[in-house]
Specification:
335 residues; alpha/beta; 60s Ribosomal Protein L30, Chain: A; Alpha/beta knot; 5-stranded mixed β-sheet; 14 helices
Length: 335
């Protein structure tokens, strides 16, 4: 099947014709198809998709590809409220499992062939730009063999209070990070959170952005489907977790921290847990540690004083997950 193109009324292609209709009319037609009774909807969408074509691009300087041309994450976020998803698996997560709406797609022919069904089903009216691999690489500025990018709309941030209320109701695990500025580590934490059923990730104001491209890629799309929020009042805001019924557990290297394998004896079953993580070097601040109920450490061989924070988070999340009998809630936010 072929994929639709989409333009606003002021764009140069808004009056172009496809199958006897202009693009703006086809956009409205697609929205009407979505109102059709479910029994007929699939047939209607199939007919609609057959009328449409992707936008083939062979000019590296095409202005419609500006978002994909040597653009830094911070520029996308600050200027336009967008983020970049990279790779077929991550783009599939963006479309099927996230609350974010795609703004556009930029694909090589193979990626378009693979993703066309899910784009037709979940891509809305976002335009799909397709280019040969050599043109694709020239646009993005390096040889990206995956040949698959999508720009998404950030939308409104989720509220801290809303997330902890939902997690408390489900008695699920929440991850809290302090001072984490490395996007790869943050992405790894989100990937672990997805694997072990954490329902949300909460961050101090100093932590990096989960919607930076590298964080999204390393998380395998976890930052797109696990809801997150910033705790603006830090570390005083941690008290709100306790007020909501959470047991606060921190990973710490202190000698008096209890071994991780004893945590199951200390926490109360059927009550939600908030797991607090800090950086490898500085660790968790004393002010934040003052808020926790239990400080735990991961036993290690002599001479080894720490683990990478993403690695340590996975070990700790598994301990909580296994202690709950593998029953943490499936992550997800209202779409």
């Amino acid at each position: 099947m072929s994929r639709s193109v989409s333009c606003n009324a002021d764009s140069p292609c808004a009056g172009s014709k496809i199958g006897g209709c202009n693009v703006a009319q086809l956009g409205r037609l697609r929205r009407e198809f979505l109102k059709v009774r479910p029994g007929w909807r699939g047939l209607c969408l199939l007919c609609f998709a057959l009328l449409m074509q992707p936008i083939w691009v062979d000019d590296v300087s095409d202005p419609r590809l500006a978002d994909y041309r040597d653009v830094r994450d911070a520029d996308l976020r600050r200027k336009r409220g967008l983020f970049m998803a990279e790779g077929r698996f991550v783009v599939d997560v963006l479309l099927r499992d996230s609350r974010y709406a795609p703004d556009s797609f930029f694909l090589n022919p193979k990626s378009f062939e693979v993703l066309e069904p899910v784009i037709n089903e979940c891509g809305g009216d976002a335009p799909v730009y397709v280019a040969k691999q050599e043109v694709f690489s020239d646009v993005v500025g390096f040889d990206m063999h995956r040949g698959c990018l999508a720009v998404g709309n950030v939308g409104e941030a989720l509220g801290f209070e809303v997330l902890i209320a939902q997690a408390a109701k489900e008695a699920s695990l929440v991850i809290v990070v302090e001072g984490l500025r490395n996007t790869e580590n943050l992405g790894g934490i989100f990937r672990n959170a997805m694997a072990f059923g954490a329902s949300a990730v909460l961050m101090c104001p100093e932590s990096c952005d989960p919607l930076y491209r590298k964080a999204i890629r390393v998380s395998m799309g976890g930052t797109l489907c696990i809801p997150f929020a910033q705790v603006t009042s830090w570390p005083a805001g941690l008290s709100r977790l306790r007020d909501a019924g959470f047991q606060l557990v921190a990973l710490d290297l202190a000698d008096d921290a209890i071994p991780l394998d004893e945590l199951g004896l200390r926490i109360v079953p059927d009550r939600p847990v908030a797991l607090l993580l800090g950086t490898e070097g500085r660790g968790i601040s004393e002010a934040a540690l003052d808020q926790v109920d239990h400080a735990v450490r991961i036993p290690m061989a002599p001479g080894v004083d720490s683990l990478n924070v993403a690695t340590a988070s996975g070990i700790a999340m598994h301990a909580v997950f296994a202690g709950n009998g593998g029953s943490n809630s499936k992550p997800g936010a209202p779409k």
